[in-house]
Amino acid sequence: MRAGILIGLLSVSALLFYGTEASTIRFEDATAKSGVSFITRNSATPNKNQIETMVAGVALIDYDQDGYPDIYLVNGAEIPSLAKTSSAYWNGLYHNNHDGTFTDVTERAGVQGAGYGMGVAVGDYDNDGYPDLFLANVTGNQLFHNNRDGTFTEVTRAAGVEGANYKGKKMWSTAAGWFDYNNDGRLDLFVVNYCVWGVNQDPYCSSPKGGRSYCSPRFYEPLHNTLYRNDGNGHFTDVSDETGIAKSFGRGMSVSFADYDGDGFLDAFVANDNDANFLFHNIGGKRFEEVGTEAGIAYNDNGKALSGMGSDFRDVNNDGRPDIWHTAVEHETFPLYLNMGKLFFAAGASSGLDRCTVNMSGWGNGIFDFDNDGWKDLFVARSNVLDNIADLGTGREYFEPNSVFRNLGNGQFEDVSAQAGPDFQAAAAHRGVAFGDLDNDGRIDAVVSVLGGNVKVLRNVSANSNHWLVLKLRGTRSNRMGLGAQIRLTTEGGKAQWNEATTSVGYASSSDARVHFGLGAAALVRELEIRWPSGIRQTVRNVRADQMLTVEEAAP
Amino acid sequence: MIVLPLLLFLQSDTGRLQFEHANELAQQGHCEQAEPIYRELAQKYPNKPAIPFALGQCQFQAKDYLAAAGSFQAALALDPTASVAAAMRGAALGMAGKMPEALEQLRAATRQDASIEPAFRMLGMFEVESGQSGPEALEALKRAVSLDSSDERAHYWLGQGLLATRDFEEAAAEFEAALRLQRSDPEAELGHAEALRAAGQPERALGEFQSVLQRSPSWGKALLGAARCDYDLQRFPEALRLAEAAHGKVTDLEEKRAAVWLLARLYRAQNEIAKAQQMEAELAAMERDMADRLTHFRMLQEEAARYRTAGDYAKVAATLEQALKIEQRQDSLVVLGDAYRKLGRSKDAAQCYLRALAVGPEQPEITQRLAATRADLGRQSR
């Protein structure tokens, strides 16, 4: 009874602090207007190659630095050649025309990609002010250097990031992320690898209706991940062994970064598919210790390894400590782990998320404040994994609609998908999702890839008078994009919230590098404190709301 | 005891009196005295289905389920329209552990008579019990509840089915309905508590678990449930006390794993590192064991696929029989059935398809295979 009263008080106090409206999160499908026409192709075959289920990621990258995020989409390839044998398999780069439309500039930019694609990571590895592109592929990985003239040059071989081998074969990479693990001011690269696999060599798993079915991931041997240290001369060195990253084997699906224990070094969370999740604790920028079990994020509430998919690593309860939310498949729930310092608390049951997500299968996801009320909400791109799930007689369908859960500010989340717009009723084989403010209106939009269907550009049209602030960080001693910076924002009412500068969000995808805050009724930010990866703490005071603010890292 | 008026008619007064006497004895719980009378009557009146039916009920009460199934089968042979006998045969087979045959019989009974509530309840119950809480089980139990809303067991099993399909609010409502009919049912109370916790109401759930524990203080499931509620409410010392008590008492593998993981986290939260590490090691051992079993299963399945490609069906069968000892999978059972058919072992094939229908949802492709195999068997016997 007492706890019930407490929860009531908390939600009232949350409202008093921010003075927000009980806003409704709403997106409109702006794909047709955007002109983005891109179909994700997996070349599904009767052999049920495992790779077919997992295509592919999305990135928001302001490649021409005009202040508007552009869209990059990864694609599959023909099977069995695993080659992009026609333009239908090309990856796609779409330039943002600032009016809601986009122009296909793939060929001109030279970023069609090669081989069977999965994931994408955006980061300015050479600190020239223009973001570069890394592609995590089943086949050889690729690094494209941004030439600052609207074109890219592939520099994979020179950089030494084609992909590490395991048992003599290039590992299947699913995702990647840029972060500066040793705080030397240069972005390093974490590549997530999945399992040992060969084309048309999958184990035979039959469907009760006859024919083959995709096998459980547990039928495949897991791999270790790869960490590349940026040498600062265009070359990277594989430091997976010396840092301890290569000691842990799992079927990795996503990586997200945050400094969970506040020691000044970024840690990495890897969501694994049917293996215990990893939390790589960064020991002084020199080595990593895998502490997933000790920290309490390895397994779900029942002590079972889940089918981990996408992940995000940010503070959802405004206590200054980054939390972890990852997706999984039906009957597993999408766990939310609240950071209590060194340990995480499994808040799936107490937050209501278990109840909301237990019958869902999710891929890409993100923790963003979609209604600008000062509390970060949750978005998931959904679909079952098995294209023949309906044949199994479980009453489930392959296609699922996307979902959005509103943070009520009292530790609880509410599924508001029914009011979030028609897309949240439209089932499809959704995969990756990237988040960012496509039209610079202060509201976080989403771009979702659809396996076998056209990409979805979802424009955030949530109607309220809440305020916002978007920060573009410019590192000087830190990496140029400021990735890894943690920002504390305090509004005029004295309420604080935190966010991370990262592009590594969700499944196989890369989000807008700018850092977004919803401010509720607050029209003024009293103080911004930026903790840069260099260790510099910078404070900016009295910032008016509703603007895109560039902050350059101050001298020490 | 179910009495079938249509089956009761006996030709002679003596026979009728004997039958009524036996029924009275059975109703008073003296089946051992009733049984010889039924057997004698069965010999005298071999065309009366009421007699083997009543005998079957006595045997059922005496927990001689296989004999009961035989007696109900005898009643059905005399009157194939006796859907109650079909339902009871299904129940007897299920209780005897012959789940594939039980489900087949109960499915037939429900198709034959859509108003026979116990058949729907038992069909759903057996499916839920054997981990098959699919649409068929839920529909059967919902039908049972709609036919007889005062059937506490139907509400209870529907609650269990909904819990398994993660429809927590609906599950809680069904357990509540069961408890309204029989407040003292600890299983329904436990189910209600589990549903409430899963539905995000740990405080209410904890109250229910505590109520169960007052009567059954050593019940592992209830201890674990209460511990998890306290964890949800971030009352770690209380959760730890309960989890420690649950650890030695839960028997189910899933619950053991949950208890060990909960303890590991709680010991960490309480800074009891050595104990936490012990639990983490226990969990890792469970993981390794499961992984080893799965690896073995996968190897056998792949081997079977290779033999199938080579057309060596004897080896397909031998390999899959081994694999199925590790994990009962519907798809593997179908492939095994197909292999037996290729080998001309129709009886074994039919048994595989029946097992396939018991471990997974009913699929037309499997029922067609079963029917075709039985037709083969019919031709062979002719």
What does this entry look like structurally?
The complex is a heterodimer of chains A (556) and B (382). By secondary structure, chain A is mainly β. Chain A has 8 helices and 39 strands. Helix content of chain B is 80%, strand content 0%. Chain B has helices at residues 5-8, 13-27, 31-44, 50-61, 65-78, 83-95, 99-112, 117-129, 135-147, 152-164, 168-181, 186-198, 202-215, 220-232, 236-247, 253-269, 273-310, 313-326, 330-342, 346-359, 364-381. In chain B, helix 10 (152-164) runs parallel beside helix 12 (186-198), helix 12 (186-198) packs antiparallel against helix 13 (202-215) and helix 19 (330-342) runs antiparallel to helix 20. The longest helix of chain B is centred in the C-terminal third of the chain and has 38 residues, at 273-310. Chains A and B meet through helix 7 of A and helix 14, helix 16, helix 17 and helix 19 of B.
Task: Put the structure in a nutshell.
With 556 residues, chain A is mainly beta. Chain A is 8% helix and 35% strand. In chain B, helix 8 (117-129) packs parallel to helix 10 and helix 9 (135-147) packs antiparallel against helix 10 (152-164).
Task: Please state the CA-atom Rg of chain A, rounded to the nearest Å.
Answer: 21 Å
Residue fraction in strands of chain A: 25-35%
Please give the share of residues in helix of chain B.
over 70%
Q: CATH superfamily of the domain at 1-97 in chain B, called what?
A: Tetratricopeptide repeat domain
Annotation field: number of helices of chain B: 21
Keywords for this entry:
heterodimer, A: 556 residues, mainly beta, four-stranded antiparallel β-sheet, globular, disordered N terminus, B: 382 residues, mainly alpha, Serine Threonine Protein Phosphatase 5, Tetratricopeptide repeat
